[in-house]
Amino acid sequence: MPIGDPYKVLGIQPQATASEIRKAYRTLVKKYHPDKNKSEDAAARFLAIQEAYEQIVNGKSSNLESIAQQQRKTQSTYSEDLEAYRIKREATREKLRQKRQQEEAYRIAYLRELKSGKNRLWHRSVAYFGILLTLVLWIDYFLPAKQKPLNVSAFGIQTYGSVNGHAVQLFESTDGRYFWTADYFTQQLTKVKALASIETPWLHQAKALGFHEGLYYRTVPIHFSFYWAQIWLSLLFLLPYISWRWASADIIFVAGSYISRYLILGLIIFFLIGENRYIHLFSFGYL
Question: pTM, whole model, 2 decimals?
Fold first, then answer.
């Protein structure tokens, strides 16, 4: 028979625990049992209490089973996702390991070729020539400078900014060389007496201009000249020897080999071609 809300029949709240439900049930059963309670409605109340208890217990068991099933389903999904993640992680690690093995094999093969293959002669030639140029630049830098007479062929009227903040202008000498000097001197150079370039004795690296001004002899520094950077430049020329002498399978030395054979070699060629330095180099500064 319909009894309404089973929780009201037992006099408990819907969120009551299992022990509270059993306690309320036992109390009411003792109170309304027909053998003990002789009132007219005791039997009906007793049956209602029995049915209410069964509904609540069956409902609680159903809910617990549903919760357990949901937990098992969630755990199963989690386990499947975890296993898929582990498989994907292992596959990624294997790809990374294979990639590293390929890179290591490439570096070792490249190192072997650098030590005994076709690139060996090329790299060694650049390395030894870089050492030669480094020695020449250092010797040339510290030897006493010499003076070479100059005559101005033409000069520019446009003023530019030098790296140290000076305003400079360009002029050309009759021997085909170009010089950047301070703008307030450039246009006066056609009028000075005994104009000369002060340069290194071997590679003829011009570092200043000298001329007489009345009773005084003045020197004017030349801007944008290789002379002021040739010590630092000489260190770059040593890179091919360093990357060949201490070559290893490390990626830095592999990159250094490429830089040496292409970039540094190009810089050496550019340096020697400029202002006919290759002629000065092999003639020991006499030409």
Answer: 0.55
